[in-house]
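Weekly structure sync, notes
Attendees: PL (lead), two postdocs, one rotation student
Agenda item 3: pending single-chain targets
PL asked that the sequence for the first pending target be pasted directly into the notes so everyone works from the same version. It is reproduced below exactly as submitted, 69 residues in total.
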Amino acid sequence: CNGECAVNWPPLKAEAGAMGAGDYSVITRDDGSLQWAYKGKPLYLWVKDKAPGDITGDKVKDVWHIVAP
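Predicted structure, written out during the meeting:
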């Protein structure tokens, strides 16, 4: 998810030096920034979620789903 997609679905950024554990890992995006991934799939936020616990992006277009380990 890059360009316009990343405006609506901002990547869950990882800080330099972040290290994954278990099913979580850190991947490098096309622009060189770091992003969290779950089971190898990049993790994103949803632009319309404003408060902790908001999950309005779940099941959007039946493509986007929340991570619930």
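Discussion points:
- DSSP finds one helix and three strands in the chain.
- The CA atoms of residues 28 and 34 lie 5 Å apart.
Action: rotation student to compare against the earlier draft before next sync.
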